[in-house]
Amino acid sequence: MRWFDFYDERLHYKMNKNSKLLSLKIREKALSILDCYKNSKRSDKDFVFTELKKANFKDTKDFYAKTKTATKKFNKYLVEVARKVKVKKKVTMHIARHSFGNLSEDKIPMKMLQKLHRHSDLKTTINYQANFIHKDADEALDSVINF
């Protein structure tokens, strides 16, 4: 993400896997985190996260390597945060995506989840969410056992 990707209170970005142009509303919590990075901003073309400032965007291998290193670093930070708040489970950036799926459970309609997950096929979203939606099965079991 570069600073010019943020405008109209949204993050505008392109998906790597399908090159679709997308945008997300920037929440207050995210804005407060972004504010922490503004001191290192040199221009609107600059990357937001300092870990990518030295990456050569035109060199795919270099950019991939720097992105991978940054992700490892962020995962390390997540582990530290989890330790401080006494979360015992494994935490990574990828697991955070699954956590969203788990938290959304049956609160968000499947078509909206498809859009939020950026899945091109609804079947992918249904299969993905099947790992998290337990309410119907729990209620069915309760209706038999706790009659």
Structure notes:
The protein has a domain at 92-147. The chain is 50% helix and 8% strand. The protein contains 6 helices and 3 strands. Strands 1-2-3 form a 3-stranded antiparallel sheet, with no helix packed on it. Strand 2 (10-14) and strand 3 form a beta hairpin.
Topology (elements, then pairings):
Layout: E1 6-7, E2 10-14, E3 21-25, H1 28-35, H2 60-84, H3 93-104, H4 110-117, H5 122-130, H6 135-145
Antiparallel strand pairs: 1-2, 2-3
Outline of this structure?
Pfam families: Phage_integrase. By secondary structure, this protein is mainly alpha-helical.
Strand order of the largest sheet: 1-2-3
What is the approximate shape?
globular
Query: What's the average pLDDT?
Result: 85
Structural class: mainly alpha
- Number of helical segments with 4 or more residues: 6
Strand content: 5-15%
- Largest sheet report: 3 strands, antiparallel
Report how far the terminal alpha carbons are from each other. Answer: 54 Å
- Helical residue percent? 40-55%
Number of strands: 3
Task: Give the C-alpha Rg.
Answer: 19 Å
Order of helices and strands: EEEHHHHHH
Low-confidence stretches: none
Pfam family, one: Phage_integrase
Keywords: DNA recombination
Organism: Aquimarina celericrescens
InterPro entries: DNA_brk_join_enz (IPR011010), Integrase-like_cat_sf (IPR013762), Integrase_catalytic (IPR002104)
Question: Can you give keywords for this protein?
Answer:
single chain; Integrase_catalytic; 8% strand; globular; Integrase-like_cat_sf; 147 residues; DNA_brk_join_enz; 3-stranded antiparallel β-sheet; 50% helix; DNA recombination; mainly alpha; Tyrosine-type recombinase/integrase
